[in-house]
Amino acid sequence: MKIISSETMRDLDARTIANKRVASLELMERAGKQCSEQIELFCSQLAPHHKKRLIILCGPGNNGGDGFVIARYLTSKFEVKTYCTHKQDKLSPDAKTNSSKVSELCEFEASSQLLNKITEGDIIIDCLFGTGLNRALTGEYETLVNSINASQLPVISVDSPSGLLSDGQVPSAAIKATITLSIGLPKTSYFQNDGPAHVGSLINLDIGFSKDYITQAPSEGQAFFAQDAKKTLQSFTYNSHKYTRGQCLIIAGSELYNGAPIIAADSAAVSGAGMVILAHESLRTPQNPGIICLTKPPDIIKSHFFEKSQSVLIGPGIEINDKNKKLFTHLIKSDKALVIDASAIDLIADNKTLFPRNAPTIITPHAGELQRLAKGLNINHSDLSKAAQHIAQNLSIQVLLKGPQSKIYNEQGAFSYNTSGNWALSTAGSGDALAGIIASLWAKKDINYYEQAQLGCFIHGKSVDFYTGAKRSFTVDLFPSLISKVLHSLSPLA
Ligand SMILES: NC(=O)C1=CN([C@@H]2O[C@H](COP(=O)(O)OP(=O)(O)OC[C@H]3O[C@@H](n4cnc5c(N)ncnc54)[C@H](O)[C@@H]3O)[C@@H](O)[C@H]2O)[C@@H](O)CC1
Ligand SMILES: [K+]
């Protein structure tokens, strides 16, 4: 999905309204309704004893207007308190209209009391400022935002965490959101400067801007959202069988790291491939008995398992020894779609003359692995994003640079941000699941490999977004069931 500037977003709003495609109040109604659905969904995932009392904070502009619509939709379902910073007659016209529909539920001109009020609730809905914020927050706003951040309460920001400027800078204070509900299209501020540290999980809400306006809007980059995932997830036909669904081979593990292959294989098996073959070094078995396990296979490259596989994943938990070095060179020379993860990434530099390959390749490094590879290839690695782009173009491969906002570069150096996931992913074994998911999605011929890689990264992140327990208690054995939940949310036919 296209990322646009806040200025372009305002222009899109204005054109839509001026050309009478959709009335401004109707746009606000759609925004508020969809936000309230997402808030309800968030509440449904909380522990049963959680009181779910909502505090909606509304500013003077249309961002506040969205808040009044949300209040109207949610008041019959939750205990809702709505506070507005301004008097009703000082609000923007649409905010005023919507405030009048809930005026008996709302306290106006409440700025000075807000500090005491926020702790009367359990979830804060931030509708103070959206794309109209044009300067740093000061005075009471700055104090309020700092107190909200210190409150340890979940905050759902509508369209933008209040205080985040359109270039992603936070000159004074800004809400550190748990979730940001982006209205219309994602804005540059989410991805630049201080943006990533403030937006939390991103969800984009399509409120029905006309397709031609969106096409004409200048693009500031690409990001992958649930809407993209829905379009990219392939469906299978009634006569699918295990071979048409694809076969993927996973070469992973060592005596020491014998869990990594299990996580990768179990994640691959639930992501679409009809057959998953695991070649590994220990007697440990995956959760899924359908996975074919080859323990210490003598020469996997000569086996029919290799021949029949459309994709091969190499890396999770492998030891760098002569046998694996030789195997790696064979794989690079082969015509298989390759997913290269973990310590196998370290073997690329010695094989750099074998690139570009004749088949799609993706590497999935975290920052440290990318730095090592860049060093090995004599590429400047002071700026990791530039190094990733350089490597992608030079070797003609895809590079998935893992991090809080993972980026996926294609062979031409263009990239897209992933928008799912949270810090629960920062646990050992998480990357093995990601590599397994992508290998599974790549176990097919004639697909758009770049789109499928983005889909894989999105599914992986969304799995932990769907996890309803304490984030710190998330363990990687939960990936298979969560992946299945994510896929089902993307399509009832998944
Ligand atoms: N028709 C539309 O334009 C739609 C707008 N929508 C919502 O409206 C938002 C944009 O609305 P607006 O353009 O009214 O802008 P905002 O509601 O973001 O804020 C504008 C107001 O904040 C004041 N302000 C700006 N910076 C400030 C600061 N640092 N300290 C104190 N006050 C400050 C301005 O003077 C103005 O009164 C979007 O982010 C979105 O949430 C949605 O309802 C969809 C439709
Ligand atoms: K906001």
UniProtKB/TrEMBL annotation:
Gene3D superfamilies: 3.40.1190.20, YjeF N-terminal domain. Pfam families: Carb_kinase, YjeF_N. It comes from the Bacteria. K(+) binds at N63, D126, S162. Residues 9-215 form the YjeF N-terminal domain. One of its GO terms (molecular function) is metal ion binding. PROSITE patterns: YJEF_C_3, YJEF_N. Binds 1 potassium ion per subunit. The gene is nnrE. InterPro entries: CARKD (IPR000631), Nnr (IPR030677), Ribokinase-like (IPR029056), YjeF_N_dom (IPR004443), YjeF_N_dom_sf (IPR036652). The keyword Chaperone does not apply. Its EC number is 4.2.1.136, 5.1.99.6. In the N-terminal section; belongs to the NnrE/AIBP family. The keyword Flavoprotein does not apply. SUPFAM superfamilies: Ribokinase-like, YjeF N-terminal domain-like. AMP binds at K402, G403, P404, Q405, S406, G431. Keywords: ATP-binding, Isomerase, Kinase, Lyase, Metal-binding, Multifunctional enzyme, NAD, NADP, Nucleotide-binding, Potassium, Transferase. Residues 225-494 form the YjeF C-terminal domain. GO terms for biological process: metabolite repair; nicotinamide nucleotide metabolic process. This is Bifunctional NAD(P)H-hydrate repair enzyme. (6S)-NADPHX binds at residues 62-66, 130-136, 141, 159, 260, 317, 366, 432. Homotetramer. Catalyzes the dehydration of the S-form of NAD(P)HX at the expense of ADP, which is converted to AMP. Together with NAD(P)HX epimerase, which catalyzes the epimerization of the S- and R-forms, the enzyme allows the repair of both epimers of NAD(P)HX, a damaged form of NAD(P)H that is a result of enzymatic or heat-dependent hydration. Its cofactor is Mg(2+); K(+). It catalyses: (6R)-NADHX = (6S)-NADHX; (6S)-NADHX + ADP = AMP + phosphate + NADH + H(+); (6S)-NADPHX + ADP = AMP + phosphate + NADPH + H(+); (6R)-NADPHX = (6S)-NADPHX.
